[in-house]
Automatic annotation (TrEMBL):
It holds the Pfam family Cation_efflux. It comes from Peptoniphilus stercorisuis. The chain crosses the membrane at residues 21-45, 65-83, 95-113, 128-149, 170-189, 195-213. Residues 29-220 form the Cation efflux protein transmembrane domain. Signal peptide: none annotated. It is a multi-pass membrane protein. The keyword Plastid does not apply. Keywords: Membrane, Transmembrane, Transmembrane helix, Transport. This is Cation diffusion facilitator family transporter. Belongs to the cation diffusion facilitator (CDF) transporter (TC 2.A.4) family. It comes from the Bacteria.
């Protein structure tokens, strides 16, 4: 069994890690129980009092319970082993479950927005008592607990669905607080603002859902990884005494805690192929053990055979630095006898005409290095 096969087996074991799945399922079950209980109590109070604000708050809790069910289904499917059809596993299903939760929020918010408008047009008599108020206060405490619990487990497991549920729970605290305030205003001043509070609650739910949809879609489409993780990987790889530089890190996300990527490293051109290969295998193992990320390594060679290399590299850096949109230059290599120059430049995503930029840079370099073949590779900063 070669090193690649061993690493793939390690990845598979890590992705199937039971502790993470167990934590998420337990947190989701707690969410189902708490939200179902709150929904039942608030529905009873809402029906008794004719309060649209309390009833909408209750249905919001019920949608949270359904969201937790979706979370459980999502994590179970996401934990399925990789196969020929899906060689990178099913981890992105967690993003889909989070998206479903977000869409549910928008739908629920819109339905109660319409109901609240109707209540303002056709108000009903409201009946409140002190017992109902006390129950609503306890509901707020319950939601604070649930939000804190989901946030803790969400961070521990890096679960987008639980983090979404945590944000929703804290939103519910504000919603329930507004409900209590409207109840107190009616009990003390006999002023009915129930329908307006219902509108506030429904709009809050809608905008929370839209925000979560945006965040989840970015994860599905593909967004840059955390800067902290990127910097730590670069720092870790550069610790190797044989590595002269590390560049072009790309991390592809296949679900929470599921990254496969690539990175280029520079070795001295005096290093043999077998030495470079062995060092890469060591780095692959070390990176995976520390970060749980499988990286494919590419190799750059660093000139050591000619004392003029530093001078020429400086000249070319000066040429390239005159252009806007160039973030950095690396992988410089020059062969004097073969008349060949190789360079990698990192171009900002805002540069619209990359081909024109490359053409101009190659033209300016050719003015100094006449008859040289110039291999100019364009990179983007993906992280």
């Amino acid at each position: 069994m070669n090193i690649d096969e061993r690493l793939k087996i390690k990845i598979e074991k890590k992705l199937k890690k039971g502790s993470r799945i167990s934590w998420i399922i337990v947190a989701a079950i707690v969410g189902i129980l708490v939200n179902t209980l709150l929904a039942i109590v608030k529905v009873l109070i809402g029906l008794f009092s004719n309060s649209i604000a309390i009833t909408s708050d209750a249905i919001n809790n019920l949608s949270d319970a359904l969201s937790s069910i979706v979370t459980i289904v999502g994590i179970i499917f996401a934990s399925k082993s990789a196969n020929k059809k899906h060689p990178y596993g099913y981890g992105r299903i967690e993003y889909i479950s989070s998206l479903i939760i977000s869409v549910l929020l928008v739908i629920v918010g819109w339905e109660f927005f319409k109901t609240s408008i109707d209540f303002i047009k056709n108000p009903k008599e409201i009946k409140f008592n002190i017992f109902s108020l006390i129950v609503l206060l306890f509901a707020i405490v319950g939601k604070i607990f649930l939000g804190s619990y989901n946030k803790k487990i969400g961070k521990k497991t890096n679960s987008p669905a639980l983090m979404a549920s945590s944000k929703d729970s804290y939103s519910d605290v504000l919603i329930s607080t507004m409900t209590v305030i409207s109840t107190l205003i009616y009990m003390i001043f006999d002023v009915l603002i129930d329908g307006y509070v219902g509108i506030f609650i429904s709009l809050f739910i809608i905008f929370s859902g839209i925000s979560l949809i945006d965040d989840t879609l970015n994860s599905i489409i593909g967004k840059e990884p955390e800067e902290k993780v990127v910097n730590e990987i670069y720092k870790f790889v550069k610790k190797s005494e044989k590595v002269e530089g590390a560049y072009d890190l790309i991390l592809n996300n296949y679900g929470p805690e599921r990254y496969i990527g690539s990175i280029n490293v520079a070795f001295l051109d005096t290093m043999s192929l077998s030495e470079a290969s062995l060092e890469i295998l060591k780095l692959q193992n070390s990176v995976f053990k520390k970060f749980g990320i499988y990286l494919v390594f590419g190799i750059y060679s660093k000139n050591t055979q000619n004392e003029n290399v530093s001078r020429d590299e400086k000249k070319i850096r000066e040429i390239i630095s005159k252009y806007n949109g160039i973030e950095s230059m690396h992988a410089f290599y020059i062969l004097y006898e073969e008349k060949l120059i190789r360079i990698d430049i990192v171009v900002d995503f805002n540069v619209k005409n990359v081909n024109e930029l490359v053409k101009n840079i190659r033209r300016d370099i050719s003015k100094i290095y006449i008859d040289y073949e110039i291999i100019l590779n364009i990179d983007h900063n993906y992280v």
